[in-house]
User: Fold these one by one.
Assistant:
Number 1:
Amino acid sequence: MKTELSARAARRLDRRDAAAARSPWLRPLSVTGLAVLTLFLAMAVLAPLLAPYDPAAQEAAKLLPPSAEHWFGTDQLGRDVFSRVVHGARLSLPVALLLVAVACAAGTLLGALGGYLGGWVEGLIMRSADLVFAFPGIILAMAVVAALGPDLVNAVLAVVVVSWPSYARVVRSLILGMREENYVQASRLLGASSLRTLWVDVRPGIVGPTVVLAALDVGNAVLTLSGLSFLGLGARPPAAEWGSMVAAGAQYFDKWWLGLFPGLAILLVVLASNFIGDTVRDVLDPRSARRGRA
């Protein structure tokens, strides 16, 4: 009897494992990441409807604790913290997605040109990437913003500057392995230009790893932008931005709600982005999925 029950339990586990293997999006972490990120995206889109107060209005009493009237309390200027957290999603998420897209496009293009053309072009691009990697990312981003001036646009540009070499290196390594393949050589022998060969023959082989890297990089982008704003080098007041809200809360340690709720928003978005990035990697790279199941 026990043997039969054990066999049934083993078959049920095998079916669950098979279902998870067929659909990585049905795994618990994947579902959690999608739910959290969808919640914050909906919050960003519907912020004017969800926020009960104007995020810049200084109408309430200062430093009120969370209550039924002000769910997350009020800050040192009498602004509703919940409304500012909701509107902060409209700033942090789109900006992070934009800078990841720009860094991915720039790094992919430079890495593709360097890996395919070789010679001095490859040397120039890779030495530039090595120069960026020689410094800690946040320190180099701070230096770029300090040189250009504290502003959200300059913060985005700084994060792009420190992010593109990762894509360039990955794409270059992929193209170095593909440019000697028979189908690439045949395309060149038929008279196709370098750009056409890159777009038609090489591009399908680099899309997957690049998308995986970009998906994993969204959380880092949110964290870096928040760090720059925390240091006063990102969004300028009175803009509702999570990093600057955490910085304001750090000045009032006894008013725990000022930094707790925007900090939780940053934490949840970063975790959700990492969960989704891992799922995208498993979907586009079956080898990593097999290693994870093993």
Number 2:
Amino acid sequence: MTQAPTASTEFDPALRKLVIVVVLGAIMTILDTTITNVAVNTLGAQFHTSLSAIQWVLTGYTLALSASIPLSGWAIIRFGPKTMWIASLLLFITGSVLCGIAWNITTLIMFRLLQGFGAGMILPIGQTMLAHAAGPTRMGRVMSAVAVPAMLAPVLGPTIGGLILGHLSWRWMFYINVPLCAIAVIAAIQLLPTDQVRDHNAKLDILGLTLLSPGLGALVYSTAQAGSGTNLTDSRVVAATLTGVALIACYVLHALHKGDAALVDVRLLRDKNFAAVNAMVFVYIGTLSGLTALLPLYFQTVDADGPLRSGAMVAPLGLGAIVTTLITGKLTDKHSPRLLILTGLPVVLLGILGLTHLAPGTSDILVVTAVFVIGLGHGMIMPAAMGASYQTLRHSQIPSATTATNVGIRAGSSFGVAALLVLIQRNIADRVPDVHAFTRTVRTDEVARELTHAFTQTYWWTLAIGAVAVVPALILPRRRRPA
């Protein structure tokens, strides 16, 4: 892990094998961030609970991802990347089985947290291994390969979830992980090189862990409470928000003092390029994750679609992303990532703008086109952003940088989903207070119009939040720096 990266510009067999292993291991953990999006109505009816409670099935998973990601940098050094990769996959499998046998909403949320904790270290460990092996001349193409599972998630997640809910019990949304992840474990055992470097004296930053993870959890909790209808000035919301901010602020001070030994080295944010990329990604991922949670809910609530059809309507987002991802990797290795990011962001915003003009009876073709356009932009942004995040860093900073970037991605995803579900629930309550989000009763034309307006109003907020991502993107260097 400490050797200098190769200067080769071609993909050698060893790098191809490594890419295969990382993609196999990461794809199911990423799919699980979206596979439950189409099950909101089903789970709400199954457990007789509210949208704010079901929200924790979605956000709890990503919150657990955020909590475990900071451990990945230390775990790689202490136990080795291959060992931790396999251990994380096994923990994810265990959590998946337990989710499948959950008997109430509380146990399902608890087991989703366990599942997310196992999944959290998988992608950063994989990215670290790939970044070390690829070097700067192949970083864009390698990160494009890693981005493929993220591109497939909007396609396969809701679609697979819809197929399962249409023909099987919702429990199979979790059982399906077991055989696929078992293949990933076998591939890792056979294809990954044996761990050569382990630092048995590496110490875990326990104080940092007790500050950062609860701090993120407190902020997500306050957002979820607001989404349940609790007033923003309620003591629980205020206390959780202040606690989260205070804990994270204390962690930053602690990390600055701790330096390289900190759980996440916040000094990396002094690098202008790294800070700008991560700020852009945090805002953008929050926007996109919230949007992918809203879309299936829109199709099921307004159009009264079943899980399968609502999942299929979201699939064009991933299809569009795959189209541009196949090109973005090579372009990132030759040109400045700034150009690709500032091209992709307006495309995404254009697609979201199309969603703000929905009306009852809007043609499915127009909706699918808007979603596909969002995907085209997404495929330009993420591979370029991941490659750009390493552009100005030293080789020795890669593990810490990967951890910091993934913390931001997962935290942004959690906050984005929670915030937009808060907004849609409040908008529906304001306009149609007697309509429950989980009911699929026949709607009158007036109710359909009010529900549609509630969603389009939320899409306007989504557009505004996404537009903020343009600001840090403008700070990125105009030219690609030499390797």
